[in-house]
Amino acid sequence: MPILNSEIRSYNIIFTGRKEILIQSLQENNLNQYIFLNDLLMVLYVEANFNENIFNNISQIVWWERAYAMSSLINITNNLSQGVSVRQATDMTNMGNGLYNRLQGNGNVIAIIDSGIDYLNQDFINEDGSSKILYLWDQESNYKSPPEGMLFGSEFTRDEINEAIANNNGDLSKDEIGTGTMAAGIVVSEGKNNINYKGIAPKAELIVVKLRSYISLFKEGRINYQNTDFLVAISYIIEKFKEINRPIILNFTVGTTSGRDISQALLNTFDELYQSGFILVCGAGNQGNTDIHYSGNVSNGESVDIDFQVGDDKNLTIIIDGYKVDKFEVALISPFGEISPTISYAPNFALYTGKFNLENVTYSISYSYPWISTGSMQVSINLENVYSGIWTLRVSGENVINGEFNAYLPNKNLISDNTRFIDSDSSSTITRYGLLREVITVGTYNTKSNSMWIGSSKGPAETNDFILDIVAPGVDIISNYLDNTFNTATGSGVSSSVVCSVIALLIEFIINQTEFYRLSIYSEPIKTYLMLGATQKPIYTYPNTSYGYGILNYPNTLQRISENL
């Protein structure tokens, strides 16, 4: 069952020094629920009424942030009559029995961090009756013990899953939502239930993490995930990467709030993510037409007022990103005209709290400069018991050179349909983890209309620094769903799953061709091959904010690789 957001709070923490000393400091402050992810990063779980000023008492903590909400990048569309099989969408049905179809992903492992998987589905079971799943960690399960070093959930090995399959026992773990199962079907489905819906890399194998789900963070009843649990899942997959010594393609089918500047510090603490054989693929996001982004510019001594509408949400978070060395002052004006104190940078990393009395809305505002993930300013405003109406965010230039800033609301599928910026900007809406240089970031293409999907997140409007890489089919794609059924799904999590599948085929080809394959399967070379092989429409200039370097083209990409081996 999803966890109420009022019951738990979690933090990402960058620390320094010896872990033993930090543990002692944590225990002295009655903080006992933590997981070390590496030598720099840990996550901490506390009660919802935790006093964040306690962090100031622990000298080993050099930076912290409250967990970001994450949401699925896969929208289940229930449109089977108009659906498209994944092989049809990627033009793989007409390739005959040549090289293209002989590659089936052998030797590769695709890691999916999402809503779990229906492991009894026949399409995830090999011909010998064994599961395609090497490991399954259900973060919500109490069935058995969690993985070593973790605090929650149950870990299942392939042998345990095989036994459950033999006994037709579906109690180990359940996917109640279906997005994880659909991502897995796109990748590895055997086509037993319907040969037309066979996956792209049916001989690849899986590592699956079912994320803990939370409910009613912003709008009542909406399910979200937390990036603390997501980072813990990445840590788990890294440990499996060390154990199995095989290529792993990590598929990001859930995403954080959108961003403009690169958000790299947390993922960069994991050295293993940048080793040969570990490929990162991320859906760009589904925020291209959702009014969750505002971009502006302000000079020293000037102010700009940004209106945003709030619907029937319980709570709301607004994030303001600065640019490079710029500093801004921020204030919030309520629908009844109350104004918060003007918040400006102070080096003490203080948390500002207060209340709008007329609306009975409490707020907390944190100001980070330089924010460790970008090196720029970031302000995070959290509103609890938020009031419906038109709010105003006032941004003033305190010490600016460039003057650009961006403001973001949470992902649209977590908030009310009526919550939006009045004057929004659809550019620069890529999910923050998709902005990393090492990540292959994938937008969504609509093969039914031969055009971009309107919801696909876009790169920045004025620079090419963090543009998305390629786009891939992702509209009404048919895949496995719950209880051995099929459904359709749309979104950049669908597109990233398609690209992960194709990468599994490409890596199989590279390994078969050269004994020096490990020099070729870093994320950056694979990304370059995908860009070189992409289809580009002559009417556009590439790269661009919507298409990146073009549309995924598997046979052409394979050709580009063969020319360079």
Could you describe the 3D structure shown?
The protein is of the alpha+beta class and 565 residues long. It is built from 10 helices and 32 strands. The strands form 6 sheets. Strands 9, 10, 11, 12, 15, 17, 28, 29 and 30 form a 9-stranded mixed beta sheet that branches. Strand 22 (351-356) and strand 23 form a beta hairpin. Helix 8 packs parallel to helix 10 (554-562) and helix 9 (523-533) crosses helix 10 (554-562). The chain is globular and about 65 Å long. The model has no long low-confidence stretch (mean pLDDT 91).
Q: How does the major sheet shape up?
A: 9 strands, mixed
Shape: globular
Q: Classify the helix fraction into a percent range.
A: 10-25%
Alpha-beta content class: alpha+beta
**Parts with pLDDT < 50 across at least 5 consecutive residues:** none
Rg, Cα atoms, Å? 23 Å
Number of strands: 32
Oligomer: single chain
Q: In what range is the share of β-strand residues?
A: 25-35%
User: Could you tell me how far the N terminus lies from the C terminus, measured between alpha carbons in angstroms?
Assistant: 50 Å
Tally of contiguous helical segments: 10
Output mean pLDDT.
91
